[in-house]
Amino acid sequence: MSQVTLYNYFRSSTSYRVRIALNLKNIEYKYSPVHLLNNGGEQFSPTYKALNPMSEVPTLEHDGLIIGQSVAIIEYLEEQFPNPNLFPRDSQKRAKIRQFCENINSFLHPLSNLKVLKYLEDNHGYDQRQKEVWINHWYQKGLNALEAWLQKNMGKYSFADQVTVADCFLVPMVFTSERFNVDLSPFKNIMSVNSRCLELDAFKNAHPFRQVDTPAELRIS
Ligand SMILES: N[C@@H](CCC(=O)N[C@@H](CS)C(=O)NCC(=O)O)C(=O)O
Questions:
Q1: Is ligand 1 within 6 A of the CB of residue 49?
Q2: Alpha-carbon span 96 to 124, nearest angstrom
Q3: pTM, to two decimals
Q4: pLDDT (tens digit, 9 = 90+) per residue, 157-209?
Q5: CB of 43 shorter than 6 A to ligand 1
């Protein structure tokens, strides 16, 4: 297998999604850290921008391909490394799972993205507490929809009893919610799936606090 390199950042939830997928598929990869805060943000350096014109992590490099966007990356990994599958073969089941992932990817995630929060701080004077109120407001709406989806589709994991790509999106979304003190107490389905996933090595090893670029004060064993 030719080298897989993941340009990413320990705390980035979109990076976390891809690390989980790589681990579930047992793909060895080179971890290339891109610090989103140091030196004004390494994502804005000309070298990194040449890889990812959006100046975002993650970016995956494999076999001459350089690709951004966590959804595109995970779909590429699924096609190149199909075992184990993270998407069901049945197209209706696959559509349901993509719906779940898009609720997180298109709606929830951008509202808590670093550049959005920085804009609120720089242009509207938001402090940390105000940012958390903003995130909590939007997350409650999205989390309600995800909770209802799980009520119909979950088993041991997000979709029935097998780990799927839905779990790769759910766990990092819970991590971000906790980071910004979102009230997760109403979301029993989300939290029970999250706990079961976090028992698995693929999820444990992808955790933001266990990466090479995790600062010492955040590190867990
Ligand atoms: N839709 C993109 C979003 C990527 C994204 O938002 N990455 C964040 C970290 S989680 C980032 O690099 N932010 C840099 C910034 O806001 O300056 C994906 O799924 O890969």
A1: no
A2: 38
A3: 0.97
A4: 999 999 999 999 999 999 999 999 999 999 999 999 999 999 999 999 999 99
A5: yes
Atom of ligand 1 nearest to the CA of 58: 20
Closest CA to 139 of 166, 98, 95, 174: 174
At 2 the pLDDT is 87
CATH top class, domain 91-204: mainly alpha
Assess whether the C-beta atom of 88 lies below 6 angstroms from ligand 1. Answer: no
- Which of 116, 97, 95 lies closest to 176 in space, CA to CA? 116
Domain spans, the chain: 4-84, 91-204
Task: Please check whether the domain covering 4-84 is classified as CATH 3.40.30.10.
Answer: yes
- Using a 6 Å cutoff on CB, does residue 113 contact ligand 1? yes
Query: By the 8 A CB rule, do 24 and 163 touch?
Result: yes
Using an 8 Å Cβ cutoff, are 217 and 178 in contact? no
DSSP secondary structure letter of residue 103: I
**DSSP H or E stretch at residue 8:** strand 4-8
Q: For position 145, what pLDDT does the model report? A: 97
Helix axes 70-80, 13-24, angle to 10 degrees: 10
Q: Is 69 in the pocket of ligand 1 (CB under 6 A)?
A: yes
44: CA distance to ligand 1 center in Å? 12
